[in-house]
Model the fold of this input.
Amino acid sequence: MNNFTFCTPTKVIFGKDIEKQIGETIKGYGASRVLIHYGGGSVKKTGLFDKVVNSLESAGLTYVELGGVEPNPKLSFIHKGIELCKKENIDFILAVGGGSVADSSKAIGVGLATGNDPWQYASTGTCPEPNEVFPVGVVLTLAAAGSEMSNSDVITNDTITPWVKQGITSETVRPLVAFMNPENTFTVSKFQTGCGIVDIMMHTMERYFLGVGDCDLTERLAEGLLIAVRDAGRVAIANPEDYEARATLMWASSLSHNDLTGCGKPRYFPVHKLEHPISALHDNISHGAGLSVLFPAWAEFVMKYDTMKFAQLANRLWGVEMNFDHPEKTAKDGIKAMRAYFKEIGMPITMSELGLKPEDYEDIINLTTKNGTAKIKSYIDLGKEEIREIYKLAE
Ligand code: NZQ
Ligand code: ZN
Done:
């Protein structure tokens, strides 16, 4: 087990009717004038927006609204948010939505706290100073990205060509508080529910592999989460209003990406680094859909470097019988079972299902590898050649 620091201070207020607590809770964090930040309008259709406003007004808070965050949130819109907050003297940002809205809010907060363009941090891998924090809260409507408790903030720079999607990783971007009512996810479409299930699984699986030494407790926690998500995922797809299933997915979204399932493990996230350039260049591709295609292909490509770990997950998560003489067969069957599960919940498993043709690959590979000058850290470094191989396994 590697040395680690575990600090995940976001306060979580979870369950039915918790919207009533929003106003008083954020007032406790010093909020007086709030930016309510949201996406393309689902929160207005569902009535959640009105509940949030009522709660703020009951606590005596004033607000300004900025809707219109697109999936894969864009830097130009974040700039707009920063200017609006300055003009309106906003002292608290409340994200009402999924990961894109949370990330847009977090990036606006970075701009306000530092006085710098948030892209400066995303593009260089540098962090704001520890005291450069702007208060952000999240009213979550989609169980997926885990941004409501994570130290990541993924944004797309649409002011350059080609667009680049990159994350800020910093303790300063963890939200102060997350309000999570599973009922607010009942209206999420089957496709977005599937994307969420995949993303939640991936945040834990990316941490599960690439470790060194014994990390049994962390791995058992990871497997428990994955099993619960596997089962709840099936139920939520079949019955979108199943409260318990939605609650499991919602809580798993946070726990999968707040570092709990990675304690003592390194954090490389190679498949996320393969996916982000895809959804940067092809804005219509959802993050979770890109992952469901790439992860099994990556697993096939690297499983020979850690066969027993892949076989272990195949056995414990997918119920594949362990073949001690030929663990590579167990590992392979596990990857097959993963693909079957993704298919079952309606997710794509091939590049062509994403709408990508072989002639699209080179642009993505060039963006991923900075024109061949950078490699992704994995069991072996992934450069242009290796990425081409992985794409082939996903055809
Ligand atoms: O915009 P609205 O109208 O709200 O519709 C959204 C959007 O079209 C819809 N939706 C959300 N809640 C709904 C709903 N529709 C009906 N009912 C509801 N209750 O779902 C669509 C997708 O929303 P989005 O926020 O884009 O999805 P998700 O939560 O999956 O977030 C994806 C973004 O998060 C990033 C991804 O790369 C992507 O940009 N990630 C952020 C991470 C982080 N900050 O820690 C980690 C992840 O690995 C990921 O990279
Ligand atoms: Zn993700």
Remarks:
- The first helix runs from residue 22 to 28.
